[in-house]
Predict the 3D structure of the following.
Amino acid sequence: MSTSSTETPPAGPPAAERLPQETAQTPAPKRSGPEPKIRIHRTIKYESDRTPGFGRDLMRVPGCEQLERCIQCGTCSGVCPLSIYMDHTPRQVMALTRGDFKREVLHSHTIWLCASCYACTVECPQEIRITDIMYELKQRAIHEGVYPRKFPIPVLAHEFNAMVRQNGRITEMVLVIRLFLKTSWLAALGNWRLGIDLLRTGRFSLRPERIRNRGDIARMFDAIDGSKGGSA
Amino acid sequence: MSKPKVAFYWCASCGGCEETVVDLAEDILGVVEKVDIVLWPVAMDFKYRDLEALPDRAITATLLNGAIRSSEQEEMAVLLRRKSQYLIAYGSCAHLGGIPGLANQFEREAILRFNYEEAPSVVNEARTRPQTVTEEEGRRPHLPELRHVVRSLDQVVAVDYYLPGCPPTPNLTRAAFDALLSGRLPPKGSVLAPDIALCDECPRKASRPADVAFTQFFRPHQKVLDEEKCFLPQGVVCMGPATRSGCGAQCPGGNMPCTGCFGPTSRVRDQGAKILSSLCANLGAREEKEINRVLENIPDPVGTFYRYGLASSRLRRRADLTNV
Amino acid sequence: MSASASPSPPVAPPATWTPRIVAFFCNWCTYTAADLAGVSRLKYAANVRVIRLMCSGRVDPQFIVDALARGADGVLIGGCHPGDCHYVEGNYKMLRRFQLLRRLLQDLGIAPERVRLEWISAAEGERVKAVINEMTAQLKALGPLGLPEKFESWDEEIIALARRAAEAAPADGDAPASAQPEEVHV
Amino acid sequence: MKFSYFPGCSLKGLGRAYEESLLPVMKHLGVELVELDDWNCCGATAYMAVDEAKACVLAARNLALVERSGLNQVLAPCAACYLVLNKTKHYFHDYPSMKQTMDRALGAVGLRYRGDTPVRHPLDVLLNDVGLDAIRQRVVRPLKGLKVATYYGCQIVRPYATFDDPYNPTTMDRLIEALGATVVRYPLKTKCCGGSLTGTVPKAGIRMVYILLNEARKRGADCLATVCPLCQFNLDAYHAQVKAAYGPVTLPTVYFTQLMGLAFGLPERELGLQRAAIRFQWRPAVPAAPVPSPVPA
Amino acid sequence: MVSSSQEVRIGFYVCHCGHNIASMVDCPEVARYVETLPGVVLSRDYKYMCSDPGQELVQQDIREFALNRVVVASCSPLLHEHTFRKATAAGGLNPFFFHMVNIREHDSWVHTDRAEATAKAKALARAAIRRVAHHRPLEVKQVPIHPDVLVVGGGIAGIHAALTLANAGRKVTLVEREPTIGGHMAKFDKTFPTLDCAACILTPKMSEVGAHENITLWTCSDVVKMDGYVGNYTVTVRRRPRYIDEELCTGCQECISNCVYKEPKFVDEFNEGLGKRKPIYIPFPQSTPQVVLIDPEVCLNFKRGVLTDRCKKTCVEACGDRKAITFTQREEIRELQVGTIIVATGFQTFDVKRAPQYGYGSFPNVYTALEAERLVNASGPTGGEVILRDGTQPKAIGIIHCVGSRDKKTNRWCSRVCCMYSMKLAHLLKEHSGAEIYNFYIDIRAPGKSYEEFYDKLNEEGVHFIRGRVGEVTDWAMTPEEEGKLIIRVEDTLAGFVRRIPVNMVVLSAGLEPQADAQEVRRLFNMSCGTEGFFLERHPKLAPVNTFTDGIFIAGCCQGPRDIPDTVAQAGAAAAEALVLIDRGHVEQEPNTAYILPDCSGCKSCLPLCPYTAITFDATTHRAVINEALCKGCGTCVGSCPSGSIGQNLFEDEEVFSEIEGVLSE
């Protein structure tokens, strides 16, 4: 075994979760000009770094109640297919949330990487509905405007919202195009082959799907605005 | 005039109790010989003012039957109380509230509305209701007011003795007269009947097996009833085990189950709750669904277990949910 | 049925009103569970008054109607789970009574939620807390049952009568009508 | 058998091949689907992230419409719709505050949701209502020799579904075996396909697509069978990106309904097979028996 | 019927219980209030009523103030009723003139508003004051205790309890379901943390049981019924046939070698299915009793349990004159009279198939911990060599802790022994195979004597500890090094990232759970179970081996997961508790029996209600009669008598009504 503690560690990062074709080295950030050898920032947390009540408040939201029971076992991260890319593992997000470290949590890109596959929710030994907590954190990040402006996921969510409010339904291609317009032209260009495929197979449609009683959606939303289900 | 004076009076009742005096048959002659009857509306004409004119406590004993529902009945009860040395609640209605007491399941307003406006047979477009005072050709006749609840006599005035039954049996009446006339009276407040349940004197007692487990209930008309056997193993609700004896088990003798007119023994505070407890505990079923299936055939527990005793039950009458 | 029809309609409960619950707990399971709730320092509404009996089978329906008549807004009966009765089947006997009693009470206009039968084993301290809190919330929503107040309001008729009778015959030695008729009865 | 049918936006867009194959297959089995009148977006995943209450309200409108339609069950083929509709139903019952929100919103448009409509997935209906025997009887072109990796994805088995085991679902396996095909052991059957990440964080999404395709190929599958329009899209449309990052892995991904249609001998052009970027080609070893007429509804 | 003609003079005491009560209930205020109630002669508050001075205070007051009723408001009557009854008696009163009010467990500990808690204490006290006026003097009955003891379960707990009692000169019957005693411990190789050999310390005790003159050992036996009460239990035991006459078998095992099956062919339960045995077998070499048995399911002479003639009966020939093999042996039902019972029925391990993400059953190289125990055991199926099901030897082994423990979807509790036995297995597996060992844990729980030191030792040995609950065990590889291996995916929570670790063998450290038939056993012995299904002790601290049924004690893992030292200690405690009863010679019975009043009408409604048939119908008086000796005091007949003609000592109608009135009259 290569990872035995008595042996010399391998040169690169651990081989685990690395695809054969992936580089063993994390690509170094492009730098211009001389940089200090190490960049440091403060990692210690003071009480003033906390937002007291943040965790408790979140636990009052339907679906998020069980967070208080977290035993930090890491099962969520162990089963999460995206945990390999996260800056904080799901377990850490739980700990940070419960510890009222609002800033760290809402700025973490973990919440935007969650693909809502519910594996963590099903596996959690404490029956914490982690996916629902991730949803709630995303909502709070959007509400507070702390997500990266051009980060595609909140933009997608926003576009989705607007389209549903207006039409009642989603026209996927229109949504995708708007998304690319608002985030990255480059990405759109990079996907030109995909677009051609979709055209070729008759799946590229820009004809907006609409419901008949289009006012319904807006009326329903207006009826509940300002009253989030959970906080009542 | 050294003969003791006796009065009979009649409030909210069917009148059957007054008739029972006649049931004494030839013994009535003995009674009449020894007492003066000063009031007996069913048989003699007598005016309120005559009664009022009597000195207080002039009547040795008044046998008042019927429950108290109206202001007039209240006034008569108070008046008779004042004029009598012994006031005896005579029969189930005066004793417990009786059948009229079943009205306590309903609000007074609902009763009036139904009877004067909503009952299918009523034609009353003007929705006229009886008034306590009306004016007609310069006269102002008064009518009694209907009270909120039906009361037993002892809920209105102090009662010295109770003669239970619907109606009281001649034997008990006779014994009561004997006691009164001889002065060998039990402590005040006594019910003048044995303090032991009806089964004690029921001829069917011996036929009850020791292992009844109800799996089905029948109402008496739903089944051909065995004339010898205890009603309970036949699945017919009999109030006998929860009812005072003293009637000689007349209903079982006539092949009908006891309906509880003698009221509970002195050891019981609520006759209906007690018979319910006993019957239900002896059900065979264990599952909620099965239990309820068996109990379904007691469709009206209030009317069954409190036929005579609702007005004197612990819950006394229907609670008014509209105000709750 | 209009409120004005009653001699004096029950007053709306004050904001601080809390329902009163009389509880009959069996010695072996539910009473022990309530002890466990205590040992575990669980917190629940303070409006429950527990009366210990050996078995839920001892709960005489008279106790229940008596408690309601004396001002309880709800009655809670706690026994062992079916099959677990320390006395084999006392709990089944209570269950059977409970089924009919609840129907009877409903016929008398008393909401079935006011009388509750719960199986709570000696280990279920949490359940004691949950049931009491839940029942308290339900009773709060229902409001007071107020039977004593209701009886009192009816008795106004009789008290007035007794007063009139006393005025009519002030010298009379015999007791006037009682204000508490049910106490007179045997 | 009659169901209210909630297609959802995807089945009218990128996933139209799913609808194109589902409808004839269900009709062929005598299951009548009545498209829900004036349905709206289910409030799916992306929406949940913006505002859970609004997502639930959107779903509740559909459920209320189903109840108004008089049909007592709704069929939701899209995994995301299935999840959201079920989740909404759970929230309606579990959280009084959510119920209030839904009541208020629906009240504003004159609708009411009672909360008792079962939300069903086609797999559930096919296995438990139609039954494998009835399906076997319809097979005229057994898919003998075809090796299929059954891929359920996440949202139909987690966390609200009750018709299959969330760890090792087998409904599709049994269904596909009933069609005559062979199911390969595929331990990734409930792993995530990357969802919308293929579009938003391609590096992460493409990697997941690659793993799924590669593992199926390693286990000898001729195709992946899926139950979700997003899974199908991800596994089908990003072959070029996968190739660029990891080398070529070509494997067609079909809807299970398309395989059913093929086995039932329904015309291939009516099953939407032409809509895939990686075309699925299957020629049976044995010639087809004549197609029996559909079961009368 | 219950009132006493004497004037009622009540003494009331409210206990502060240090701060336990006083911090939430205004005790002086309660005392002041109670003083105003009718019948109360004196009312005091006191710091610790259960202390000696507290009890003496009661005694003094009874004499000085001529009290004839005593009410103490303090903790639960289940805890101290006895104490205060004794104090009342010592003061010269009948102890049943005492009544207790629970204002700690039912009040101060469960409420948060001082005013409300104080009001509640007053209400409960008021109820007791009203109630106690109705109390009457009662007699306590004494019942002799049968000196014999039944021990149910022959694991280490049952063995130790039986030996303790037998060595104290008591007759013990030990009933075991399996063909041998020894339980789970007999399957272990070594015991933590000392690593002494399980067999070396257990088998001498097993043989001692087998040979002890005071112990009757019944294996292949189940208790099917228990009647009676403390001191006088009648127990019915079913003895299943082993088709061997235990008296005649010498344990020579020649029959086994002469069986028509030349090779062992059938699943060997003792080796967790890793080995094979014949139809006639002995579970393991040190089985006690040293008697073989026949499995009728597979013996050729039985076809589906029915005797046939399909075998040459070579075993019978081998047995020869000893004639120990009796194919016609039948199930026997035996009845026992005992005074006390110790239940030591043990545990079962969690079925790891309920955690499918770990692949047990799908991947042959995933093992349960008990299988691993057999694998490293020198007398196990591989002779102690770690050879996997596929015949290879592992180079890397992952041990997953908490499988079926600390998981709300399966078992919520910590199984307490898994951390230690996992480390023990890590040590043994490393010793036997030289493989790299990874322990995946949520938290290491090593709170016993020398346990932490054992953890240190493992760290020194180079065993890897990775803090993280494993997400899954799978066989799909992402890198060449993973090909053909089992891959464990886990977050290394201390490092803060996810890892994939390829291994050749996975050991699942299954948790402990109640036996599958724990509920039936519980009913059989009239015990309670906790929420998790283990038998419930009377008090978690003060009565850990007692149950709510007097005379029935519990020991070992049937009460909850525990290790061997704790089990042995608890078994000793249970034996001591039984001895206390036996040596006292009698028990006192609570006089809460029911009785028929003279006004019974003989309606017979109560007769079917009594589960103990204590009520009979007297044909001469035509009344019901209650046999006081049989009545257990549940009061069901009292609550059901339609004419109110049954009374119950301590729980009279008037007493309960006065309590209701008391709690409600504010």
Q: What stands out?
A: The mean pLDDT of chain D is 89. The two ends of chain D are 7 Å apart (CA to CA). Residues 131-275 of chain D form a domain with the Rossmann fold fold (CATH 3.40.50.11810). The longest helix of chain D spans residues 52-69.
